[in-house]
Amino acid sequence: MDDTITAPPDIDLEFVVMDEAELEKPYRVIIHNDDVTPMDFVVAVLVKFFELDVRRATRIMLEAHTSGQALVAILPYEEAHRRVYAAQSAARDFGYPLSFTLEPD
């Protein structure tokens, strides 16, 4: 019997092992433009999940729209990861491909 565990082909799994000091380091949350997610939805996600005011969220959305990506926030890794996961999950619930990446600051 083969004890190998495999994920379904449509699920992208990535496991990252970090020590506690690494989790506290600041990470840049980057939002990426796409041609599907409505601009008002992007603004609403930035306001709700990153606690931005509407004006700042709108500026970030427009920068991502024109430049392809924009800096949303600089946060400790765990908090950045939690907020990105929540934002992307909300987008998927509505069928939008909104995406973010994390980069060490």
Report on the structure:
The protein has a single domain (23-104), classed as Ribosomal Protein L30, Chain: A. It has helices at residues 20-24, 39-50, 54-67, 77-93, and strands at residues 26-32, 69-76, 99-104. The relative contact order is 0.24. Helix 2 crosses helix 3 (54-67) and helix 2 packs antiparallel against helix 4. The termini are far apart. It is globular, with a radius of gyration of 16 Å. The model has no long low-confidence stretch (mean pLDDT 89). The chain is built from four helices and three strands. The chain has 105 residues and is α+β, with helices and mostly antiparallel strands. Strands 2-1-3 form a three-stranded antiparallel beta sheet.
Helicity level, as a percent range? 40-55%
CATH superfamily: Ribosomal protein L7/L12, C-terminal domain/Adaptor protein ClpS
Instruction: Report strand %.
Output: 15-25%
Strand order of the largest sheet: 2-1-3
The succession of helices and strands, N to C, reads HEHHEHE
Query: How many strands?
Result: 3
Radius of gyration: 16 Å
Q: Unreliable segments (pLDDT under 50, ≥5 consecutive)?
A: none
Tell me the overall shape.
globular
How many separate helices? 4
Structural class designation: alpha+beta
How many domain units? Answer: 1
Q: Which CATH first-tier class would you pick?
A: Alpha Beta
- The CATH topology label is Ribosomal Protein L30, Chain: A
Mean pLDDT: 89
End-to-end Cα distance: 46 Å
Q: From the coordinates shown, what is the CATH architecture?
A: 2-Layer Sandwich
Largest sheet: 3 strands, antiparallel
